[in-house]
Input
Amino acid sequence: MKTDVLIVGGGPGGSATAMFLAREGIKPIILEAERFPRYHIGESMTGAGGKVLRDLNLADEMYKRRYPTKQGVKVYGQSATGSWFVPVTGRDENWNLFEWDTWQVRRSDFDKMMLDEAVSRGATLIHGRAVKPLRNNGSIRGAQIRMIDGNSFEDVESEVLVDCSGQATWLANVGGVTGPKYLGAYDKQIAIFSQVVNTVRDNGGTRETHKDNTLIFYQKKYHWAWFIPLDDEVVSVGIVCPSAYFLDKKENKRDFYIRELRELHPELGRRIPEIKLVEDVHVIPNYSYQVNGFCGNGFICIGDAHRFIDPIFSFGLTVTMREGQFAAPLIRAYLEGANRDKPNPFSGHQLFCEMGIDVLEDVLDSFWEHPLSFAHCVYSRYTEYMTDMFAGRIYGHERQPTAALLSFRKLLKRDGERERSYESSALYSIPIGSRYHPERAAIWEVNSPVETTEKWMGPR
Amino acid sequence: MDGPALMPAQWTSAILMNEQDIKASLKSFILNEYLPGEDPAALTDTTPLMTTGILDSIAVLKVVNFLESEFGITIEPHEAVVENLNTLSDMAQLVSSKKAA
Output
């Protein structure tokens, strides 16, 4: 079988990439091993994520399906009475700020909608699993796949393979295609999550008190909870903490989760007066990583397939869909003959994406390392720039780095270093999170991550 | 120019006076807003406000806003750190150094 573009993974990253390719006149094959609908985590979008759906003309469908409309993020910090709020905003063509909303999504439903839409716009869905890449003189020329129905094997030859396999990081794990996969700065963390009902939601008349906002709670460093409404009844709630703390408690995941709902923060406890779960308790440990060299001859990795930092401000969906949007016109140009002679035809795209996610990494690190300065920026000093970063406007053409980001880099003592590292791939070769935490400079063990979650948990 | 190499005494005292004024104005703001009914003598120039939790982070941010509006300065994010904001003296020093700059 032959195709211009083979997309490995039919989540929102794969579907968005397929739809943006369809706009360029390219009809890709999407390979997906699971039957949709299926459960998945990552349920909130930032403003720029909502814009991707608007760009794809899916806004009407999103409103029709009554996904909660997120107006912003409210953070409850160390004091039970204090909190700060960052509204969702957009920027018009003159870069004037305007109030916007975006969506919270139940992924079983949203991912199916996206995949169905990609197919209706011209993509071909194959129900199969990628087994190994097809290689030719150092370039990737497609993948061998195993069909889910019938277990037969088939080679799918492609000009460009787009890895949208998410945290499975398929290409990074097959060996010898991408650069090494490094542990990320938040790799010692664990996320434990489920869905609850009977919660106390806000219901005020302002954006800050809208019932559908994301709420974040923390009292101690690296120990926090998310509260993301999925409809008028059900709320996704997750606990994130150092893995050592979780192991120390010697509780099973359900008992741990329920106790944390009561104890993590008084405001979280107040909002969940009687605990009733309507979903299994799921666990993802050691979720933080970064893959170097994630674009190359014949391949591009999108979203979680090359990097995941931390879930706290819900950048995952936004970043993966945007990277698909950015990649589509470059893939078209490549198919038409551009950059054919280069060892890495997508090196510009690779650096562009990396610089964007670096902005997020610096924002997240500042949040934990310098909470007071961070809140000062939100509260008064750089309110507009902070809404840019919270919306996911993190790329070079979006006026990054902003004064707020430069200030954070100064606080983190990495001002100048980021910029220098972009000029030299040798400097950039070890991720900054690892350089600042030498114990984390370890390379991820091949094939170790998400699939082994339950094994890692052990029998409890 | 044949002026003195050291800062003239009246300038030094002006700055010192200034810091005293800043501390006095800050002290009355903090007492009124966060410690109503507290004995003013209990809040000294060196009472740690942040590291002891007397002020939570939101309260400190309101104090920062007060400093900015009251003294016409802009406090940068990298200046909004414990070392600059823990005591009345720390804050007064921050303000006078910003005003001098």
